UniProtKB/TrEMBL annotation:
This is DUF7979 domain-containing protein. InterPro entries: DUF7979. It comes from Haloferax marinisediminis. Residues 31-98 form the DUF7979 domain. It comes from the Archaea. It holds the Pfam family DUF7979.
Amino acid sequence: MELRGRTVIGIVCALVAVAGLVGGALGGGAGTLTVERVDELPQGQGAVAFANLDPDQRATFENAVTTGEPVQLPNEAARNEFVDPGYVRYDGSIYRTTVSS
């Protein structure tokens, strides 16, 4: 059986599409955010103010605080402030933020 150019291109495109779907389903995204309330910041650490997060970050953070469960990050850029400094000041409390793949 001989495959012609269009058939090969169609097969390759289908394989790329399936690989993308499988990668996304297996956690190939930006990761998950977990938050934990802490009593105080460790010596020398800073915290980002909740108001300084972008709207996607604020929604993700509030979802994690409300549910107490890890929450999927909407995109790679949403991780930045949750990784460094790794703490958020929110509603009079301090939360340690952890991002996992």
